[in-house]
Design goal:
The complex is a heterodimer of chains A (about 90) and B (about 450). Chain A has about 90 residues and is of the alpha+beta class. Chain A is about 35% helix and about 40% strand. Chain A is built from 3 helices and 4 strands, in the order βαββαβα. The chains are: A alpha+beta (about 90), B alpha/beta (about 450).
Chain lengths: ~90, ~450
């Protein structure tokens, strides 16, 4: 299953490192990363391949725990929802 | 990959603008459960519904998790029970109790289909079922009832309209200790549709497959947020923006519906392109109309704004789904829409204006609280008016009014939850009793002769 991971919040050192460590520990392969700063907010989106062992809510929980206290909001959602809404 | 903006837009719609799937409804045919012995019939119903719908709620929850999109209601609809009551002897309330038992066991929010279709006349089972509605709805919590009393092809069965006026009143009286909630579980239709996933009017038509998944999407908040960012846009620019938003919302409904159907091994039916409000702040159809530039919903211009909204939603949604059906349009229930409630309290929105609005949007007079001493004849006349709009305009119209027993104009009937609260709205003080007492049928209009 492919999922889109979104990280929104205050830009600080080590966000990408923390997120990718958790992904690696859980067998999640990161396929694409893009990051940008929009209206002073750090926004990172990742396309990731999830193994059968983990689903979106589980990964989302683990990522949330890893960045606790950093003021970041993380969403992990199935790729299909964006495919269906934004592609014809 | 998608642009960051696309991704953020979707997340914002779900997190901040209350975008959700309003309902996944599984329609189940009970035609093979007909039996002359009512108890045997009930056993067959229980067995069949449990077999087909056992995993309905669980599937909905899996999809919610997988896609991160809330699915508010999981429901079931069944063949109009009057058809089963026609064959079986005994009180049809037994069927309602069976449906309640299934709903409790499966964990769904509601079961629709305690219904009769009597637009041209009553056949065996119809009167018995309709007469049993007050008892059925007061002795169950999850069973919903609907009665179709008119159609463009058949005209309006005025005997049925008169009967339903009385049944609504009795249902409210039978549940007077429970916010008169019985009346909120009955819908009286003209041109009822067979694949509606929304309650209280859902039933599984006889032309439908054995089982089917229908989906209703929702997203008034998303449309409002879009329009609020366009303060200086012209009307056609607004229509364009609504279309694009409706497209995106509907695509999500299509995704969820096909996925649910696949997981349950049941054919996918339709997406109902409806903007269904909730009492949550920002999730209001009235607020969309106000975002278009009306000071208050209900003022002059409201009907035009609603017509534009309704049409744009359909145009945007229709390309997004392989099959569109159900009621498809903007809903305007009063008690379930914070903006509508405010408009009524401010004196901006009257029942007469709501009636006009139903001519250009989905369905009809919905979740409107009326004084408790309203006569059955007046309720019947409201039903007849609304059915006439549906009949002449070849559209579905419905009446779901709640006589607030013991309450007068200006008081508020609280339902709680998704049903919100309804201010008691004034009705005309003049009688329609003589007209209603004539009985008979309003003949089908010229529009019916299409062949």
């Amino acid at each position: 299953m492919r999922a889109v991971i979104t990280v929104i919040g205050k830009d600080t050192v080590g966000i990408l490192a923390k997120i990718s460590t958790i992904c690696a520990e859980n067998g999640v392969n990161i396929m694409d990363v893009s990051q940008t700063v929009m209206q002073d907010m750090f926004v990172m989106t990742m396309l990731a391949q999830l193994s059968d062992e983990i689903d979106c809510p589980e990964l989302s929980e683990k990522l949330d725990a890893a960045v606790e206290g950093m003021g970041l909001k993380i969403h992990v959602m199935h790729e299909d929802i964006f495919n269906s809404m934004h592609n014809i | 990959m998608f642009t960051t903006n696309d991704i953020l837009e979707t997340i914002k719609m779900i997190q901040e603008e209350n975008l959700d799937i309003r309902t996944i409804t599984m329609g189940i045919s009970l035609l093979d459960c007909i039996d002359s012995d009512i108890d045997r019939s009930c056993d067959k119903i229980y067995e069949k519904m449990m077999r087909l719908a056992e995993n309905h709620v669980k599937t909905g929850e899996i999809i919610e998790k997988r896609y991160g999109i809330p699915i508010i209601n999981k429901r079931l609809s069944v063949t109009p029970i009057a058809i089963l009551a026609a064959a079986a002897k005994g009180s049809p309330v037994k069927f309602a109790l069976t449906l309640q038992k299934v709903a409790d066991a499966v964990g769904v929010n509601y079961v629709g289909g305690y219904s009769a279709l009597v637009h041209k006349g009553f056949s065996a089972g119809d009167r018995e079922l309709i007469e049993s509605i007050p008892e059925a709805l007061s002795s169950t919590t999850k069973v919903c009832s609907s009665v179709n009393i008119g159609s463009t092809r058949a005209g309006i069965n005025m005997d049925a309209a008169a009967l339903m006026g009385r049944i609504i009143k009795q249902s409210a009286e039978a549940t007077a200790n429970d916010h008169c909630f019985g009346a909120a579980k009955i819908v009286v239709f003209c041109n009822a549709v067979e694949d509606n996933p929304f309650m209280a009017g859902a039933f599984h038509g006889t032309g439908e497959p054995d089982a089917v998944i229908n989906v209703g999407v929702s997203g008034p908040g998303v449309v409002r947020a879009k329009l609020e960012k366009m303060p200086d846009a012209s009307i056609d620019e607004l229509a364009e923006a609504i279309k694009k938003t409706a497209f995106k919302i509907t695509r999500m409904g299509q995704l969820v519906g096909t996925e649910a159907a696949k997981m349950l091994g049941v054919p996918f039916g339709i997406v109902d392109l409806s903007l269904a409000p909730t009492p949550a702040v920002g999730d209001s159809v009235a607020h969309i109309l106000e975002a278009m530039g009306l000071d208050r919903c209900g003022t002059h211009g409201t009907t035009a704004a609603l017509a534009l909204l309704n049409d744009a939603v359909k145009k945007g949604g229709v390309m997004a789904s392989s099959s569109v059906g159900g009621l498809s349009g903007a809903f305007i229930p009063v008690s379930e829409d914070a903006g509508m409630i405010d408009a009524v309290n401010a004196g901006a929105l009257s029942i007469e204006k709501l009636e006009a609005m139903t001519a250009v949007c989905s369905v009809g007079l919905d979740m409107i609280v009326v004084p408790g001493d309203t006569s059955a004849e007046t309720l019947a006349a409201i039903i007849a008016d609304e059915a006439a709009i549906g009949m002449v305009n070849s559209k579905t119209t419905a009446v779901r009014v709640i006589p607030a027993i013991g309450m007068k104009e200006g008081e508020v009937l609280e339902f709680g939850g998704l049903f919100g609260s309804g201010p008691v709205m004034p009705l005309s003080k003049f009688s329609s009793a003589k007209f209603i007492s004539r009985g008979g049928r309003i003949p089908a209009p010229l529009q019916s002769l299409k062949n």
